Amino acid sequence: MANPFSDRSALDANPFADPAVQGALSSGQRTFEPDEPYNYGGGGASVSTPKSAFDDDAPEYPSSAARGTGGGQSSAQMEEIRRREEALARREAELEQRAETIRKVGRNNWPFFFPLIYHDISSEIPPASQQVVTHLYWLWLLLLATLIVNVVACVFLIGRGADGIKDIITSAIYLPVIGVLSFLTWYRPIYNGFMKEHSIFYYLYFVCGFHLVFSLYLVLGIPATGSAGLMNTIYSFTDDNHRSIVAGILGIIVTIGFAAQGLGNLWYYRLIWKHNKEQGHTFAQAKSEFATHGAKAYFSRGNNV
User: Fold this and answer.
1) Which has fewest Cβ within 10 Å: 60, 120, 157, 251?
2) From CA 195, how far away is CA 121, in angstroms rounded?
3) Distance from C-alpha of 166 to C-alpha of 46, rounded to nearest angstrom
């Protein structure tokens, strides 16, 4: 029996060189294109290779500007938001500057002869409100000066008997009481209001608006009420003695002084009421701020309540 493995050349030959094998390989070989979907089993269904998010034809996401204007938001609204952001940025810069000023020179400086508080309109009040606060300060100084002249005028009313004595005593009481209370109840609250823009200070100023009515009372100058106003001035000119004439001349100054500061404060009361509404301050906010901070809000410096 012949040995089938005796032919060594058949063993050493390359099996893939057989023409049958080469034909099978040629018929089964296929070229794949990069974008051609791979077809499993030669069926109709095919699976596509997923596209990368970085491909040129990948869907683009909207930019941040496009997203910001979405949801029906108009360009006018975007402009309003931008304007408010700029205003807040300016306000923050102003507050930081004032805080730095207070840190450097924040010692009490008013009144100059016995400093009790820090008072500086140019560094604590925003530039847009400095003129209003300055005029209110001048009106307060006018009231104080009128109270001083009023005491002197009432001294010259001493010749009118009991009424003259009452005028002297009452006018002497008015000077410190009205002078201090007017500063604490209407000038300082509105000073803090423009400095801090908190509702509590505006409504404290409005509640203390009774000083306008009291100004009218002082202008009338009813005898024995402590005011050398209009009525006492008229009575002084009807007397024949020289002391009454001096009282009458001083009475004119007192009447004009009380009337000027009263009308000036009435004018600014109206403007400040309008400003309060424009800034959106409410009485509910004022009550909330008072309940939270109490009297500390009145005495704190800077933008803190």
Assistant:
1) 60
2) 9
3) 112
Q: What residue segments make up the domains of the chain, in order of their start? A: 91-124, 128-299
Place of tokens 């959106």: 280
Q: What is the pLDDT of residue 225?
A: 94
Please report, for the chain, how many H helices and E strands are present, in that order: 14, 0
* Cβ partners under 8 Å of residue 117, min gap 6: 108, 110
Beta-ladder partners of 47: 38
Q: Model confidence at 288, in pLDDT bands (50, 70, 90)?
A: confident
DSSP, collapsed to helix, strand or coil, labels residue 302 as: coil
**275, two tokens:** 């400003």
Q: Quick check: 263 pLDDT over 70? A: yes
How far is residue 36's CA from residue 269's CA, in Å, rounded to a whole number? 82
Q: How far apart are CA 296 and CA 284, in angstroms?
A: 18
Question: Contact at 8 Å (CB) between 262 and 213?
Answer: no
In 3D space, the residue among 190, 196, 154, 179 whose CA is nearest the CA of residue 289 turns out to be 196
Spatial separation of the C-alpha atoms in residues 141 and 260, rounded to whole Å? 12
pLDDT surpasses 60 at 167: yes
| pTM, 2 dp | 0.65
